[in-house]
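Support request, please re-run this one:
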Amino acid sequence: MVTWVRKNQISIDIRKLVICHWKRGSSERKISEIVNVSKYTVHNIISKYKKTKSVKNIPRTGRPRCFTEREEKWIVRKVTCNPKTSAVKLTLKAQQRFNKSTNPETVRNILRKYNFHGRVARRKPFISKEHPSARLEFAKSYIKKPPEFWNSVLFVDESKYNVFGSDGKQMVLRKPNSELEMKNLTPSVKPGGGSQMVWGCMSAVDVRNLHFIDGMMDKYMYLDILKQNLQQSAEKMGILPHYKLYQDNDPNNNAHICRLWALYHCP
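Re-run finished. Output below.
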């Protein structure tokens, strides 16, 4: 039976023939003339046989790795510092640093090996590190309030809605259960002009007036919204005159004229 091998490789039959003549005591030069291959090839076949006791190719584990373990950890450190980078950018940086040309899919395989996966970044308000502790203290101060207290609270807020499309998605490379870490979040700021915004109010009792905002809202427009909708909504909900107004710290909400109006018109 003839054993087929890859091109430019000596067949198994010829290798066996070389070993057979070598065991009979023939010299490498004589074997080279008999099997019609170079003396250098004969020497390599015999040397390999002495080490492995076989003329067959030793099975390989696969294609050799492109990056060493140290280089892989360098790639992981880059992602840890900046999860919003991409595999393409990492490939270019690795090529510049290690002088190795590779495919971005190789970098993705390395990241998956270390449990990093591409995910859409969660959106969160653009807040500083001091804000979470302040919000926690605020929540603790209200956690034991009775239901009667919350029945009289009127919450107001604005939200932006896109009629067509979206604001886009930001991908991050992160580990599982790390979506809420600061570096894995996409900051969101208060919307500006050119987008459709809606003001609304709600309480534990009911949901009431909606006000559509055209253009960019400023403190004067926000004050007009409060004048037109706040008392009317509270009356429809049946929480007038003892309701409590709760709103966020938007610059328009905290404007002096708005706070002054709320001081004299809200219980």
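The radius of gyration is 37 Å. Residues 162 and 220 are 24 Å apart (CA to CA).
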